[in-house]
Amino acid sequence: MNNHVFVSKLSLVNFKNYKQADLSLSPDINCFIGENGAGKTNVLDAVYYLSMCKSYLNPVDRQNILFDASFFVIQSSWNKKNEVDQIYCGVKKGQKKVFKKNKVTYEKLADHIGQFPTVMISPYDRNLILEGSEIRRKWMDGIISQFDRNFLSQLIKYGKVLNQRNALLKNMSSYGFFDNESISVWDEQLIECGKVIHEARKKTIEEFIPIFQKYYNWLSGSKEEVNLSYRSQLFDKSFEELLEEAQSQDQRRQYTTVGVHKDDFIFTIKDHPIKKFGSQGQQKTYLIALKLAQYEWLLSRLKLKPVLLLDDIFDKLDNERVERLMQMVSDQDFGQVLITDTDQERIDEIFSKNGIDYKSFFIKDNIIEESKNKVTVE
What molecular functions are annotated in GO for this chain (predicted)? Predict the structure, then answer.
């Protein structure tokens, strides 16, 4: 239990659809039952917020405030290594977000990342397959950032330097001149940060692939061959060469056209892009395998079991795959799990079949009520 991180208490005020909610959670499995649109996902998102300092679903903080309110507050008690930490997140319109641990305000939110790890599996993960490269980079960077402080600081710095360089290119274009010396100051910093980012992504993906394949095979019964690869311009040439060769193109387009901000992660099934050649069930299995690999990866690095947030994952998975997933959860490989579903009977059946004790909450009309009937398996 010593490497088991879990939320024991969760309090929401004016967060999304909840005016007020106070929950006592089980350190093991917690199920949130309600109709679509009832706000089940928002409970999981609140836990994610307190882990990663941002929403999983909407990165604009003020848009997570209850309609007509001017602020929201999320608070929780996190149990870790036999100690309890109080985490506070407050967002007020027009003000900077406030994040506190045990009543002490963080100067940098980056200092909080990785202390209370979570992994969310959600229908919104489909964007990892369907959308452009930025969302896949952010996903991988989010994993690495939770255990590699230097990577996170270099990533933040790279973003700032890139913005400065792009602003300078735009500025030069409007004045009709190009100053190589001014650009080279930003180039040096971009190269320095970029190399660190590239190496970390490369190392992580190499170690990540076999873990991911193991979970996919486990969930699918080894029916299909899947892969994951890292695409980067830095595999072909050094960052210095890339910037030199792209100089006239950067001038013409007024932004930086090469670098690790162009990297991508390629998802394939039977050597074809899963976006075009994978069925909905295969895509869903692929994404769940990615997230379970993320879980194991973080556990191995942080020596802590992240909180696992399973949002509406039974949709589009056949019964066999659902059974396999729940069997995995019940084999005690995981610590605290929060699950949402629309169907109480399905939840009861899955867990009683696997002999698992769990806690239920019902959500209706923006109110969360704990089930009085604690399910105890014979």
Answer: ATP binding; single-stranded DNA binding
142 labelled ligand-binding: no
Mean pLDDT of the chain: 90
Tokens of 1: 């239990």
**40 is annotated as contributing to ligand binding:** yes
Residues shown for the chain: 378
Q: For residue 237, give both structure tokens.
A: 């040439």
Residue 271 has pLDDT above 70, yes or no: yes
Residue 360 and residue 344 in contact, taking contact as beta carbons nearer than 8 Å: yes
The pLDDT value recorded for residue 74 is 98
Sheet strands side by side (includes 272-273): 226-231, 264-269, 272-273
355 annotated among ligand-binding-site residues: no
For residue range 4-14, what is the model confidence (pLDDT) as tens digits? 899 999 999 99
Do residues 310 and 340 make contact, with C-beta atoms less than 8 angstroms apart?
yes
Q: Which residues pair with 92 in a beta bridge?
A: 71
Nearest alpha-carbon partner for 96 in 61, 67, 129? 61
What confidence tens digit (pLDDT) does each residue in 320-330 have? 777 778 777 77
Return d(Cα 28, Cα 23) in angstroms, integer. Answer: 14
* The pLDDT of residue 349 is above 60: yes
| 27: alpha, beta or left? (left if phi > 0; alpha if psi -120 to 50) | alpha
Domains of the chain: 1-117+304-378 (3.40.50.300), 132-302 (1.20.1050.90)
Least confident of 29-33, 154-158, 353-357: 353-357
| H or E segment and range at residue 243 | helix 239-245
Tell me: is residue 256 an annotated ligand-binding position. no
What does residue 20 show for φ and ψ, rounded to 5 degrees?
Answer: -155, 135
Annotated binding residue at 34? yes
| 289 marked as binding residue | no
Give the pairing type, strands 307-311 and 337-341. Answer: parallel
Percent of the chain at pLDDT > 70 equals 96
The alpha helices in the chain, defined as continuous H runs, are 40-52, 126-130, 133-145, 149-175, 180-220, 239-245, 247-253, 274-277, 280-302, 319-328, 344-354
Which amino acid belongs to residue 246?
A
Find out whether 194 is annotated in a ligand binding site.
no
| Residue 261: C-alpha distances to residues 35, 71, 139, 242 (Å) | 40, 34, 13, 13
